[in-house]
Design goal:
- The chain has 200 residues and is of the alpha/beta class.
- The chain is built from 5 helices and 6 strands, in the order H-H-E-E-H-E-E-E-E-H-H.
- The chain has a 6-stranded mixed sheet with strand order 1-6-5-4-2-3.
- Helix 3 runs parallel beside helix 5.
- 24% of the residues are buried.
- About 21% of the residues have low confidence.
Length: 200
């Protein structure tokens, strides 16, 4: 049986490595953060598997969504030399929290007074002769999603790493679900302490 370091050297062919880099480069604009147990070296683990039912696989979500995450995370873990096993050292869980938010923007609009920038008596953001300019307000509702990827030590039942992606959910992301999941997972795993074989 090959060691994890040997599997790391064989994990990615050049074409596969290029595909991973392209996915990371094309990832949607997301905020990513991560946290690791400071007393744990993640390189000591060699195998992983998923929770029998991840948080993303509850009745509130499509079954396809869970499978997309399993596929995307497997790609990232395999590229780092971890091997999927029925007796894993690490267990993976994915959960999502979504919150409806409202963004309100208010700004001055000098054009409402018929003026233009630079005309005598008009300020950049004011009305004629110092009279306050009109304001316009826009209100936009949007959904902010947080994706949590947790790695749990299977023997100690203790979380050893968590990666989080925070982004605004768009119609395009929902229409291209598989690609959105792969890009999001790639963005999160860019924070993972163990780099892909091609990057070592």
């Amino acid at each position: 049986m090959k060691t994890r370091s040997e599997r790391l050297n064989l994990a990615l062919a050049p074409a596969a490595a290029l595909a991973v880099l392209l996915l990371a480069a094309c990832a949607p604009s997301v905020k990513v953060r991560s946290d690791a147990d400071p007393g744990v070296d993640l390189r000591q683990y060699e195998s992983y598997d998923f929770f029998s039912q991840m948080g993303i696989e509850s009745d509130n979500y499509s079954n396809l969504l869970g499978q997309h995450f399993r596929d995307a995370i497997s790609t990232q873990m395999d590229s780092r030399g971890f091997q999927r096993s029925e007796t894993p050292q690490l267990l993976v869980n994915v959960s999502i929290a979504a919150e409806e938010k409202i963004r309100v923007n208010t700004y001055s609009e000098p054009y409402l007074y018929g003026g233009y920038y630079g005309r005598a008596g008009y300020g950049m953001y004011g009305g004629p002769w110092g009279y306050p300019g009109a304001t316009q307000t826009t209100v936009r509702q949007y959904t902010e999603a947080n994706v949590y990827i947790d790695l749990v030590d299977a023997s100690r039942h203790k979380m050893v790493w968590q990666g989080v992606a925070i982004f605004t959910l768009t119609d395009k992301m929902q229409e291209q679900l598989r690609e959105s999941v792969r890009n999001t997972v790639a963005s999160v795993f860019a924070e993972f302490p163990v780099a892909p074989a091609a990057a070592q």
